[in-house]
Amino acid sequence: MFKINLSEKSGKTYKLESESEELMGKSLKEKVEGKEISPDLEGYEFEITGASDKAGFPAFEEVEGVGLKKLLLTYGKGMKQRPRKEGKKKRATKRPKGLRLRKTVRGKIISNAIVQINMKVLKAGSKKLESLYGKKEEVSSEEKKE
User: Fold this and answer.
1) In whole angstroms, how far apart are CA 67 and each of 12, 56, 112, 141?
2) Distance from the CA of 102 to the CA of which of 26, 55, 83, 141 falls in 20 to 30 A?
3) What is the average pLDDT across 83-89?
4) How many whole angstroms separate alpha carbon 61 and alpha carbon 108?
5) % the chain with pLDDT above 90
6) From CA 63, how far away is CA 16, in angstroms rounded?
7) Using an 8 Å Cβ cutoff, are 6 and 121 in contact?
8) Is residue 134 one of the residues assigned to a domain?
9) Is residue 140 assigned to a domain?
């Protein structure tokens, strides 16, 4: 079961869950037809931009295969700010210049270990994403009391 985030050029993101087996074996930056994810997405084309596993390790494009690997990273994907072990002392910058840390990342191929997949829309289909997965009807507070 995958949690899929579909993002449009406008910046809106739509979330859905899919148990599609067609995504297994695909890699990052690969194009995916919409009907492979869900029959509602006929005519759409997506690109896989990122993924992460149940422990939160991101899928990294430079790592081949499906396993975990430790890489020496600078700031960017997989590393955002100072290490936790450095303590709570106030500092002028959150990003010391030249800092590199060895972090665990996952391979670029989607497997059973992957929980979340991020995709961007390359080609839109006939139905709009907002009508399919958009705003759900909210129940008013008066209806909740009854």
Assistant:
1) 31, 14, 11, 48
2) 26
3) 67
4) 5
5) 11
6) 27
7) yes
8) no
9) no
